[in-house]
Write a structure and sequence with these properties.
Blueprint (H helix, E strand, L loop, with lengths): L1 E4 L3 H11 L5 E5 L11 E5 L4 H11 L3 E4 L6 H14 L3 E4 L12 E4 L2 H11 L3 E4 L10 H4 L3 E6 L3 H9 L7 E3 L5 H8 L3 E5 L7 H11 L3 E4 L9 E3 L2 H11 L9 E2 L1 H16 L7 E5 L5 E5 L2 E5 L2 E7 L13 E8 L5 E5 L5 E2 L15 H12 L6 E6 L3 H4 L5 H4 L1 E2 L10 E2 L4 H17 L4 E5 L2 H10 L8 E3 L4 H10 L4 E7 H8 L14 H10 L4 H8 L7 H4 L2 H22 L8 E7 L5 E3 L1
Helix pairs in contact: 1-9, 2-3, 7-8, 10-11, 14-16, 17-21, 18-19
């Protein structure tokens, strides 16, 4: 059991992560102001001191505390730290991502509100716009007692009551939901703005840009320092990783890292070694969503003019062929500027256009290249040669889509998010898109989509004139495949389908995976009835347990009626997916039996 302390954007992120596990948890907020739905959790309200929180944890078997509260909730942070220490329960802090002080020009940094008042007085500011929230009215009283101050607050009864109790006139209030930052500045013409270091998700950069645009100084109160003992993460993936490690079993399956993330960590470790800097047991890298995570470094070694580092690929519980394999990066100084990527052992070479990579170059995809370039450029501004190797990758590649994509001699270094989710549909759909891009690039105008190797073998014999790249597996993702084809304006698409998927598709399910949908006998009976089939056929359908029984189970007089109706329903469902604005391609469905015979088209 997990207790999440929230009430913020980070609280919503924590709930999203916890809900995805399907396990029970508690989500606690001080009040009822945050509207949130916890699918697998229980939302509780009311502030808890250390004693109450400790008692709650003991009574409910809490094994992990997740502090996802506001950065300025200093009392809550200290309470969580105290309870964590008292009960020996680990505490994770889901922290916001903050721009560095070096990124922000012209900001006046303040260590608390008293310091801010002193600095405002010294600068001779007479009119202030305070974007610090209604709870800071009391702390700023020494200022607004003698100067003009506009407070922006939430337009709700609770906030208005607090302002009124402190003697703030309504004319000195601006509201979050009425004007933008720039609009409020234009309306009130303050001499300066005061805000809190609230992080990127707290709208800090919008306030910073609004102040810069108006040419007025921005005073920022630094966030309080967190107590010691927290395990700090900065996003949903880091939180999931922490929960997987600290509460085994909360998630039924573990997440992992892509080959691209592993290559990035290995490259960074190699460059640190090459520059003579310390290389620890882990290396922290930034992922495409801005989150930072640390990956373990297996080993590194230094040679003359180059260094190599190894990261072992951990795909979590995803059935990835590269799981447990060494991803090796060798970094060497280059005479030319920039980062140059070279093909190492076990990494594929691109031979066909369409992948967005140079033909003849290493199969290191766009996002991993960007991740590696960003990490290396942040610590060294000279030219570098980066060689990625995967020992044994040539053999592994035969178990991947690479041969059909025209990638030879090894695997591809891939990953759009850096994270592998168990049995990831995103990865499968991304592979479909890449296959179709290659097919288009080599001039295929007719694509044949199919559910897997068995149906593909049948279809290749029917269309012997088409190249191998024209045959693409949709697995269970019929809808996604057709939408990709429509978006690329493929002139002609033929879909081969077997009866097990056809009965699900006909009912309207464009994702036919068994986790999403099973054969619906009531729907099939209704379909048969509408098609004019006999009562005997309806009774037979009602007693079936497998879709393939339809081939031989129906009376001969009913069979054609039923399968015609089934295929027409499939066409109708697919037509919604295989269309885009201003495009109408040719679409054909082939219904095949277990022997590969085309029954209907």
């Amino acid at each position: 059991m997990i207790l999440i302390l929230g009430g913020t954007t980070e609280g919503r992120i924590a709930v999203q992560v916890a809900d995805s596990a399907g396990s029970p948890y508690f989500y606690s907020t001080r009040g009822e102001g945050q509207s949130i739905e916890c699918h697998n959790g229980r939302h509780i309200t009311g502030a808890m001191d250390a004693g109450a929180m400790a008692s709650f944890c003991e009574e409910n078997g809490i094994r992990l505390l997740v502090d996802a509260a506001h950065p300025f909730a200093a009392l809550l942070h200290s309470t969580v730290a105290e309870v964590s220490d008292r009960l020996g329960i680990p505490a994770v802090r889901l922290e916001r991502i903050y721009p560095s002080e070096e990124e922000l020009d012209g900001v006046v940094w303040c260590d608390g509100y008293a310091d801010a008042i002193t600095r405002l007085e010294s600068a001779g500011v007479e009119k202030l716009l305070a974007l610090t929230g209604v709870q800071t009215i009391a702390a700023l009283k020494p200022w607004w007692d003698h100067h003009e101050c506009i407070f922006r607050i939430l337009n709700r009864e609770e906030s208005l009551k607090i302002a009124e109790d402190h003697g703030i006139d309504r004319s000195s209030l601006a509201f979050w939901d009425e004007d933008s930052d720039a609009g409020i500045i234009q309306k009130y013409h303050p001499q300066a703005i005061l805000t809190k270091e609230s992080g990127r998700t707290g709208g800090f950069m919008e306030k910073y840009e609004a102040a810069r645009g108006a040419g007025i100084p921005l005073y920022v109160v630094r966030r309080p320092t967190l107590p010691e003992g927290f395990i700090t993460v900065t996003g949903k993936n880091g939180l999931r990783k922490a929960i997987e490690r600290l509460v085994p079993g909360f998630f039924p399956l573990r997440s992992g890292f892509t080959t691209g993330a592993c290559a990035t960590a290995a490259s960074k470790a190699a460059l640190l070694a090459l520059l003579g800097r310390p290389v620890g047991d882990t290396v922290k890298i930034t992922f495409p969503d801005g989150e930072s995570l640390a990956l373990p470094v297996e080993s590194y070694e230094i040679s003359t003019g180059s260094a190599s580092a190894t990261v072992i690929k951990d795909a979590g519980d995803d059935p990835d062929v590269t799981n447990g394999r060494a991803i090796v990066a060798t970094v060497a100084f280059s005479t030319g500027p920039g980062i140059h990527f070279l093909q190492g052992e076990g990494v594929g070479r691109v031979t066909l256009p369409g992948l967005g990579l140079p033909v003849g170059g290493p199969a290191i995809n766009k996002v991993p290249r960007e991740m590696i370039t960003r990490e290396l450029s942040s610590i060294y501004d000279g030219g570098l040669d980066v060689t990625i190797s995967v020992p044994g990758g040539r053999e592994l590649a035969q178990k991947t889509f690479n041969p059909k994509l025209g990638v030879v001699d090894g695997i591809s270094i891939i990953g759009t998010s850096g994270i592998v989710m168990p049995f990831s549909s995103e990865a499968f759909v991304d592979a479909i898109r890449k296959e179709m891009e290659v097919a288009v690039a080599i001039g295929c105008s007719h694509i044949v989509i199919n559910s897997g190797a068995k149906s593909e073998a049948f279809l290749k014999s029917r269309f012997p004139e088409l190249p191998p790249q024209a045959f693409i597996h949709y697995g269970n993702y019929i809808g996604e495949t057709l939408r990709i084809a429509a978006g690329m304006h493929i002139p002609e698409v033929t879909m081969g389908i077997m009866i097990g998927k056809a009965v699900k598709l006909a009912e309207g399910h464009l994702d036919t995976h068994s986790r999403s949908v099973v054969m619906n006998r009531d729907f099939l009976k209704s379909l048969a009835s509408d098609a004019g089939c006999s009562d005997a056929a309806l009774e037979i359908i009602g007693g079936m347990s497998l879709a393939r029984e339809l081939w031989k189970g129906l009376p001969e007089s009913d069979s054609r009626l039923f399968f015609d109706a089934l295929l027409e329903r499939c066409r109708r469902v697919c037509s919604r997916a295989f269309q885009s604005e201003g495009f109408a391609g040719k679409f054909e469905i082939l219904l095949m039996d277990e022997e590969g015979n085309t029954i209907l088209s």
